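Q: Joint fold for the lines below.
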Amino acid sequence: MTPKRRAPARIEFPNDLEIVLTREFDAPIQLVFDVLTKPEHLRKTLAPYGEEVKTCSIDLRVGGDYHFVFVTDDGREMSFRGTFLEVEPPTRTVETWLFDGWPGVEAVETVELREAGGVTKLTHRLAFRDQAGRDHMTKYDGLEANYDNVEDLLRSLLDPKETVSG
Amino acid sequence: MPISEYDWSVARSSTTSDVFNAIADGHRREVLDALIAGEKAVGEIVNDLSMSQPQVSKHLRVLSEVGLVTCRAEGRRRLYRLEPARLRPLREWLAAYEQAWNARMDRVDDYLKELQQQGGGSDT
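A: Joint structure:
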């Protein structure tokens, strides 16, 4: 068996709450991009555990929408939708990410591909924003806050291996 | 098995997503930051940060609503403290999300191999 090239989730807190996941594939960049963006391919890989895919529509252009729905074994519909903000084949797409099960949570997803030596590396970012936070962000423009301490705290809490000493 | 795989979507509305929203804002993380050292009154937090009292109060209210911050009265003062344990649902969500994402990427990986074997590499 070929070893799985995977990387653990990494969380970043620059301005928004951001989850970064990376993965490498032994395939050319164009093929990886097609598999991630063409409905005929997406249908086969969309559902993490092979669930039935009910909806798979994707209008790959800036301003175009996507909508994916798959049905879990216990009958729940998992529905994801959003609008493309940037489309740069085969290296990058940026899209809004709305999960119907999480009303009120808005995220921006960025998928970046880079090929080196026949290996394509995918970087997936999910940045959660807060509407209220963004609204008054403009008011505090230019205010450079130092989040180092709370970052360390959150990191250690999110990583069960580390412990916080008080 | 399939149920636990989707814990990240079930444990959402009132707990995880709210905690997510609460800490998705940089200024609220700043307020949390100010409380790491220990309990503080609103005035002390205002002194620590470049934020107005109404702003700090607003953030404390949001943080209190999701339980990341609790408040107790001491005389006429109201003291706020951090409740880091409340971040636990976030950690659990993250672990389940990561698992689902990796499962999906495994499928992409297998599918890419399948396509490359079929196509022999140079099909147009």
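Q: Anything notable?
A: Strands of chain A lie at 10-12, 17-25, 52-58, 65-71, 77-88, 92-99, 106-116, 119-129. The radius of gyration of chain A is 18 Å.
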